[in-house]
UniProtKB/TrEMBL annotation:
Entry annotated with the keyword Isomerase: yes
Matches recorded under InterPro entries: Phenazine_PhzF-like (IPR003719)
Pfam families: PhzC-PhzF
Family listed: Belongs to the PhzF family.
Protein name: Isomerase
MF-aspect GO terms: isomerase activity
Presence of the UniProt keyword Isomerase in the record: yes
Amino acid sequence: MKKLITYQIDSFTKEKFKGNPAGVVVNADGLSDNEMQLVARELNNSETAFLFSSDSDDCDGVIRYFTPKTEVPTCGHATIAAMYAKALEENLDSCVLRMRTKIGILPFEIIKKDEDYQVIMTQGKFELSPTFDSETTQKLLTALGLEKSDLDNKCPIQIASTGHSKVMIGIKSREKLNDLALNLNDLAILSKTINCNGYFVFTFDSDKRDILTYGRMFAPAIGISEDPVTGNANGPLGGYLIQNKIVDYKENVFEFNGRQGEQIDKLGVVNVRVKIENDLPKVIQIKGDAVVIFKTEIEI
């Protein structure tokens, strides 16, 4: 019988029961894909991360991510949670861990301060797909309960990715953002057509100087009706804003805070930092806090 050391951690917040909850199994060596899927289904978070020992000399460990329905290549909030749990479990000092993911080996920085931790996740290569055609755009707007007049005209509807793609939909109003009339089934069907499971609706309609955007993310095709605070949406958003020349920046760096989870009372903040070369996003990092909800053991 194996005892799995398991955490539930809220990411992108220091307030319990806010932010985005993730499961973390810190000693996943020996688990099968089916066992990981069953654990993720049982914990029923949008993602659960599984930490394995290193499988080669070029990395410090392996991390895999499962939703309740399927494995996904990468996940922002579950990475923050996993590195936070690992830091607590091993009483780590500030360090950088190179972790193997399904999208390659990525450096994750753990910052120790005042006997607590923050985590910086370097995300995968940024990619931006062409703007949606008019027919696809209309299907998307109908499924989200939006009109064309709700759209922010400076924001093209495109798929952006740092390893786990999201459709970027910029709208004018935060009130409208919090009052979307969704058809989750239609969104799931559309995902098969566009080959993208996540939809990130965002707005610049912010009443706080230190918050650039508010957003909501939906991925019903992989069992996520609404994700509270999404690292792999806010990170690609940074690249999207730079490549489309929607925002200004200085000294080849663009940094902002994205807030998410307002409508479902799970507020959290993602700090996004984009390093820029030749006016294009080169490296995208997200930084976040975390807080433990519980630690337990699962015997299997």
